[in-house]
């Protein structure tokens, strides 16, 4: 992530900007030379100028090849690119009046661009190159000849050149600095998202740590209750209502022990990173069977096509828990409106597999952003971490979790790439 962020705003971004600027310079310089030589009748050294533009074209091809390579671009390489551009521009200015040429201010463009992308040392190096080139051009140059056609005086030519130069500078600086500024803003937003994900993951880790400790501590009182409940039933064999309550309590204790064992098994599976290999149909029905045990009052409307159901799945353990969290949150949201129906649809969208969970709750407020929506459709109970865990699972599997409103409630769309969860065997 850090490498990508640096490429967006650092030396790589500047080198890529210079590559586009170099192409514009080649076109503009070629046109300027031809117009001055043939349309305006200026007695300029045509062959040396075209040779300079040709050298810039050769360097543009080499720079484009370098930018296409996978290894990272160093800052000193970007400075070398700027030095080559400055050298060619100085060469062209030498044959066209040197520092007296109104286009000499184009030497400032690399300085302005490097200030937004390079370190202080890099900016000083670029500034030193431009300053040294200007000093040389102030002392050594071929005077710019006057027009032979008689339509323009030397002063008018200079003023016209300054006007054209002003327009070019304004367009270049405005466009390319805006491009770099957008890259900086994109980097800041990415850093903010990474920070938010880190805070969320830290909270999830803290909850997981507490859950592991609680599971370990709960095992002792559950074992004690599991031992005492049969004895209490034997001591009161004739009290039917009490025996019914004790039997129910014993069933709940066994259920708690089963949940604790599943937590331990899930942790061991996560450490081994062994995925479940089965079809989508088998995976979905396995999740629904467990969901019906946890929420027997909920009714699930399943939409699963035969072609999608036969897809081979290589599902990590976290995917089952993510889907269970989505279904559980949907059931809670529907219960807010005294309804017990939730919907589950599974679709294939190109290279993505979509798991769509719908509820009949109040949905999201219109002014909620995604960070707020990811807490789930509005409900009054729960710890508020189910959808956060589902979002974390989606990110780990290179997918996304999308929260939207529908006509009857809220919809959570879990999109995962088949390249990650599909089983090619």
3D architecture notes:
By secondary structure, the chain is an alpha+beta fold. It folds into 3 domains: 2-195; 197-272; 276-421, Histidine kinase-like ATPase, C-terminal domain (Heat Shock Protein 90, 2-Layer Sandwich). It is built from 14 helices and 7 strands. The strands form 2 sheets. It has a 5-stranded mixed β-sheet. A two-stranded antiparallel sheet has the order 1-3. A hairpin with a 2-residue loop joins strand 4 and strand 5 (352-358). Residues 1-8 and 370-383 have low confidence and may be disordered.
Largest sheet: 5 strands, mixed
The low-pLDDT segments are 1-8, 370-383
Q: Order of strands in the sheet with the most strands?
A: 2-4-5-7-6
Provide the residue-averaged pLDDT.
79
Count up the helices: 14
**In terms of structural class, how would the helical and strand content be classed?**
alpha+beta
Q: In oligomeric terms, what are we looking at?
A: single chain
Can you summarize this structure?
With 425 residues, the protein is α+β, with helices and mostly antiparallel strands. 66% of the residues lie in helices and 10% in strands. Strand 4 and strand 5 (352-358) form a beta hairpin.
């Amino acid at each position: 992530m850090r490498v990508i962020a640096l490429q967006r705003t650092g030396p790589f971004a500047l080198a890529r900007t210079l590559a586009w600027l170099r192409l514009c310079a080649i076109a503009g310089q070629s046109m300027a030379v031809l117009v001055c030589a043939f349309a305006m009748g200026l007695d300029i050294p045509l062959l040396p100028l075209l040779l300079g533009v040709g050298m810039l074209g050769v360097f543009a091809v080499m720079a484009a090849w370098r930018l296409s390579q996978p290894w990272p671009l160093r800052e000193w390489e970007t400075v070398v690119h700027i030095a080559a551009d400055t050298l060619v521009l100085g060469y062209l200015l030498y044959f066209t009046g040197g520092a007296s040429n109104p286009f000499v201010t184009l030497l400032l463009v690399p300085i302005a661009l490097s200030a937004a992308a390079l370190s202080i040392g890099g900016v000083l190096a670029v500034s030193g190159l431009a300053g040294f080139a200007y000093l040389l051009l102030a002392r050594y140059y071929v005077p710019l000849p006057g027009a032979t056609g008689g339509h323009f005086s030397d002063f008018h030519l200079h003023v016209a050149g300054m006007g054209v130069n002003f327009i070019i500078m304004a367009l270049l600086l405005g466009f390319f600095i805006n491009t770099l500024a957008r890259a900086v803003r994109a980097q800041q937003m990415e850093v903010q998202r990474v920070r938010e994900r880190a805070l969320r993951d830290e909270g999830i880790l803290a909850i997981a740590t507490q859950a592991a400790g609680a599971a370990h501590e709960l095992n002792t009182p559950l074992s004690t209750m599991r031992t005492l409940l049969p004895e209490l039933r034997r001591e009161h064999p004739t009290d039917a209502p009490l025996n019914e309550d004790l039997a129910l309590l014993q069933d709940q204790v066994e259920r708690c022990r089963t949940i604790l064992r599943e937590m331990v098994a899930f942790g061991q599976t996560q450490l081994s990173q062994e995925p479940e290999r089965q079809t989508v149909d088998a995976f979905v029905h396995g999740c629904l069977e467990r969901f019906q045990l946890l929420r027997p009052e909920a009714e699930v409307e399943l939409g699963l096509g035969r072609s999608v159901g036969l897809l081979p799945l290589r599902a990590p353990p976290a995917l089952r828990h993510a889907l269970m969290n989505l279904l559980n949150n949907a059931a809670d949201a529907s219960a807010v409106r005294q309804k017990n129906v939730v919907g589950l649809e599974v679709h294939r969208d190109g290279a993505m597999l979509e798991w769509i969970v719908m509820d009949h709750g109040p949905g999201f407020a219109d002014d909620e952003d995604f960070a707020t929506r990811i807490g789930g459709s509005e409900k009054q109970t729960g710890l508020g971490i189910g959808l956060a865990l589902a979002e974390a699972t989606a990110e780990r599997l290179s997918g996304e979790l999308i929260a939207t409103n529908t006509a009857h409630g809220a919809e959570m769309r879990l999109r995962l790439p088949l390249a990650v969860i599909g089983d090619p065997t």
